[in-house]
Structure prediction request, 139 residues.
Amino acid sequence: MKARWIGHKLSDLGYRLTPQRLMILKAVEDANSHISAEEIYAQVRTYYPQMNISTVYRTLELVKELGLVTETDMGDGRVRYHCMGKGHHHHLVCEKCGSIIDMEETILDPLWSEIERKYNFKVDMKHLVFFGLCAGCRT
Prediction:
């Protein structure tokens, strides 16, 4: 299995790329949306039945600490992960139907600028979730 973005970053930092780590990182990078540790575990077990969920959690904690993935709670009680190699974005989560809308980061630029101007504070926001009601649930 070939190392990709996260794998290359780990390797550059001197971490070993074990087959288990590579499978976990591939699941994160291949995910079309945010993915939970349990979903990663289920995917990897189909190829590597000996995988232990604690290996998934340890690997995710490592890459989170290194800033290679973000960890987000979308309000469903399950932490989800996103590869930073795919860029920053934020979310609108409907509290009624659970739909998730990805929001462009640039829409918040005026807010970050105002915070910096007013409070002399530079925001480093990699992931933000807004909860509310989508158009379909408001009608």
